[in-house]
Request: fold
Amino acid sequence: MLNVPQIRSDFPILATEVYPGVPLIYLDSAASSQKPVQVIEAMDDYYRHTNANVHRGIHRLSEEATNAYEAARAKIARFINAPDPAEVIYVSNTTEGINLVAYSWGRANIQAGDEILLTEMEHHANLVPWQVLAEEKGAVIKYVPFLADGTLDLTAVPALLTERTKIFAFTAVSNVFGTVNPVKQLVKLAHDAGAIALVDAAQAAPRMPLDVQDWDCDFMAFSAHKMCGPTGIGILYGKRALLEAMPPFQAGGDMIRRVTLEGSTWNELPWKFEAGTPAIAEGIGFGAAVDYLNGLGMENVHAHEQFITNYALEALSEVGGLRVIGPPASQRGGVTAFTLEGIHPHDIAELLDKDGIAIRAGHHCAMPLHHKLGINSTARASFYVHTTTEEIDKLVASLHRAKKVFRL
Ligand code: C6P
Reply:
């Protein structure tokens, strides 16, 4: 298990008082995680000592910056067990990673009448790029339904995968239900039907070990900022053969081999997909975040989340009128969305904030999921490596206070 007091001392922001005498209780890691000092210092060190552009200069600083930036890519490749760092493309976030696939692979491979399979629990980042593509190409989108407990209806998947299905894109962990989906099984079903599989790992990468070779997924995207790293960077993993066959996503410097006034040829992987000066400090910070999580051990991170989630679900069940959506703790990551009868989720979030507790309220960029449940929004508490049972107790006490304010 994790040494939580020691971990807490790594996160400077956890010493913040949100209001005088009111310490921060950060339960919004699923939106963006806090950053340990190791990540902050790696980025600070780059700016102080090796700041220069990458892949361009032959001067010492540029070489050092390039080495650090590419070393981070290699660490990320090992973190997801990618066979080759060239299959790891830096992107700005999960959203850009999925858009890259929809624009580059999608426009080259999807034709009128082809089918794209998604699920009803997707984040907008894994819905809208496919809707835009389908609209443009005259393709059809189908959705795997979710059941009342917030898990996917796995029995529906085989019939939804037809000979016209080109891609099955789904989330590994729901950002609302917290549901951990059976990725390996879903990828196999896609492959058996002749489709490729894309995994949205935005919520999985921070909380469990990832292995793209074991999953056998064709693409996978996630963001650094939800896993102790900086904003502005993420990765798209893709199998080499697919990436080689795809046209570039954006064009400009760095992604070319040779440019003449008549035309251009493309750089090799991964740089073919990385146009312009990249987020260098962020790449280095991403590498430091991977080092940090590896130091904790992803199995331990996962075990801690399960422990805290279990504790939270039990504690929340004692609040009258509170309804948690999603499956039991054994089937979910540390994301707990709920409604409280008689109080709007935005009012819950505002009252909790007065006690220093940061949660998210709204549709969490999953409007179709909420629509199916017949609600507009939920309140969501999300946990991470620094979350303690005392913080959950304070969440529950604050919810009781909120009910009193509303005379419930
Ligand atoms: N979900 C949340 O509060 P970006 O914004 O590109 O880093 O990540 C998009 C994204 C994609 N898929 C899933 C499953 C996600 O949870 C997210 C981000 C945040 O739930 C911000 S909306």
Observations:
- The radius of gyration is 22 Å.
- The chain has two domains: 4-30+297-405, 40-294.
- The domain at 4-30+297-405 is CATH 3.90.1150.10 (Aspartate Aminotransferase, domain 1).
